[in-house]
Specification:
With 151 residues, the chain is an alpha+beta fold. The protein has helices spanning 3-21, 63-72, 80-102; strands at residues 26-32, 43-51, 53-61, 106-108, 112-115, 130-136, 139-149. Strands 1, 2, 3, 4, 5, 6 and 7 form a seven-stranded antiparallel β-sheet that branches. A hairpin with a 2-residue loop joins strand 6 (130-136) and strand 7 (139-149). It is globular, with a radius of gyration of 14 Å.
Length: 151
């Protein structure tokens, strides 16, 4: 995975927030993490990729960010199931934008959503997954890009 591949994901995050909220998101950093130190917040959406890449992409955000997003979307129901739906939607949108970039040879799963910690929130294929740290409305969140190109 190279810098151009990573920019597909950072651009997808920027696009999602700008389209959904009409406000830019700040990408704070993109860096290699230690496999045992993956960032995650209270809610995580996970998408598995196969085809030209294999691995997974996680979007993880705190409770407060998801509540603000639901308000902006005009969603009166702010229940846990709605928070899980929105975190899954964001992960799906990010992976979907990558699929648009790479074409039909990149397959994406339906989102798996997680509240709290889980054994699913771990490095899947890379010893050091990429973390895209972002900031929006005084809240931090992260995208974990744990994929590798299939030879």
């Amino acid at each position: 995975m190279n810098e151009s591949d990573l920019s597909v994901f950072t651009d997808a995050v920027k696009h999602y927030f700008l389209q959904t909220t009409k406000e830019p998101v700040e990408i704070r950093a993109a860096y290699l993490a230690e496999a045992e130190k993956l960032i995650h917040f209270q809610y995580t959406g996970l998408i598995t990729l196969s085809g030209v890449f294999r691995g997974c992409v996680h979007f993880s955000a705190p409770h407060a960010m998801l509540l603000q997003l639901l308000l902006i979307m005009g969603e009166p129901d702010q229940s846990e199931s709605q928070r899980l739906d929105v975190v899954g939607e964001i992960a799906n949108t990010i992976a979907g934008n990558a699929r648009k970039h790479y074409g039909h040879e990149l397959e994406i799963s339906v989102p798996v959503t997680i509240r709290g910690t889980s054994d699913l929130i771990r490095a899947a294929v890379r010893s050091r997954p990429f973390i895209i740290s972002l900031h929006w409305r005084n809240q931090d969140a992260a995208v974990v890009v744990d994929i590798e190109r299939v030879a």
